[in-house]
Amino acid sequence: MEMYAVFQMVWWLLLGVLLIGLAVMVGMDMGVGTILRYVGRTDLERRVALNIIGPHWEGNQVWFVLGGGAVFAAFPLIYATAFSGFYVVMLLLLWSMILRPLGFEYRGKLASARWRGMWDWALLVSGLVPMVIFGAAFGNLFLGAPFHFSWNLTSTYTGSFLALLNPFAILCGLLSASLSVFMGAVTLMNGAEGVIHARSRRLARLSALLAIVLFAGGGWWVHGMDGYVLAQSPGAGVAQTPLQQAVTLTGGAWLANFHAHMLLWLLPALGFVGMVVGLLAAGARRSHVAWWFGVLAWIGVIATAGAALFPFLLPSSSVPAQSLTVWNSTSSELTLTWMLGFTVVFVPLIVWYTSWAFYVMRGKVKAEQVETSEHSY
């Protein structure tokens, strides 16, 4: 295999790793925001919940930056097509995420119950909306996006915002939100006691059960869905554009990779194992075990989607032959090589620092500490 094809495959795998990191770390914080008004019935209880993720939420945003940066540099055609075509979605995502730091930093500026309640709702919106969009984006990949290219590779988007909110995309968005709530709930179980712990445990069990149902339903839906098949292309590791290939739509084609490579069925099995054991661990009050199996669930879900879609990254429903794949949307070999060098150095540093920060900040957050500390939210 040509080295260029190897680098393309490596960056496809690294993109999956970055998406999993984003889902786990950012999704965990957003899950806490989503359930804040339920687990915290008083201002003090909500402050306890916020201070459990307070030392980490800003640092976790690095995964969001890494994911966007990787798409920009490694898959520029994906970045240009998606960010221009889905402009309204990107603005909605941006606006909702702007609310998060405002909610954390401005909530405690006034003692007014109305003021703090307003920012609690802002944290809910900024936690729920991005995770629904994250899952819905994966759902729309299976259906294809309405775009096509002109002769000079200028992309034209022909769809609408409401069309992106189709039933399958909503199902995937709810699956993403339920896993986010699960991770947020077990995180609060790790750091809280008393009623916050009990309410979080209840939500963790419900969200895990919902995720199991939605993941199974999504798999059944994909089984009967028309999938994309790369019928003809210049091949892997060859400089090419989306104008040089032929793509057909075939019923059940999204499962073709699984039928061709039976070991891939371990990926959805991994997702179900993570959800089921996470549910049982949360019920048994083993919140740390539940957290790690929540990570396993995210790995299984995202890896299942990636394996089903491969080699497609952004299929086109308007002109299927112009779909973007791993082979026709990556940067040059030189760019991928330099980026891989930086990634090998900096991603382990980020993982090490994040692990160290969680280790240092381990333990329970108590209401007395929140009330007496001038540095608490």
Helix/strand layout:
Elements: H1 3-39, H2 43-53, H3 57-60, H4 62-74, H5 76-85, H6 87-106, H7 113-143, E1 147-149, E2 155-157, H8 167-191, H9 194-223, E3 226-232, E4 246-251, H10 256-260, H11 266-283, H12 287-309, E5 312-314, E6 324-325, H13 333-360, H14 367-372
Antiparallel strand pairs: 1-2, 3-4, 5-6
Helix pairs in contact: 1-2, 1-4, 1-7, 1-8, 1-12, 1-13, 4-5, 6-7, 7-8, 8-9, 8-12, 9-11, 11-12
Number of distinct helices: 14
Name the strands of the widest sheet in spatial order: 1-2
Strand content: 5-15%
Low-confidence runs: none
Tell me how many strands there are. Answer: 6
Number of domains: 1
Largest sheet: 2 strands, antiparallel
Write down the overall geometry.
Answer: globular
The chain-level structural class is: mainly alpha
* Terminal-residue CA separation: 54 Å
Question: Can you offer a commentary on this structure?
Answer:
The protein is mainly α and 377 residues long. The chain has one domain. It is 69% helix and 6% strand. It contains 14 helices and six strands. The strands form three sheets. A two-stranded antiparallel sheet has the order 1-2. Strand 1 (147-149) and strand 2 form a beta hairpin. Helix 1 (3-39) crosses helix 8, helix 1 (3-39) packs parallel to helix 13 (333-360) and helix 11 packs antiparallel against helix 12 (287-309). The longest helix is centred in the N-terminal third of the chain and has 37 residues, at 3-39. The radius of gyration is 21 Å and the shape is globular. It starts with a helix and ends in a 5-residue tail after the last helix. The model has no long low-confidence stretch (mean pLDDT 91).
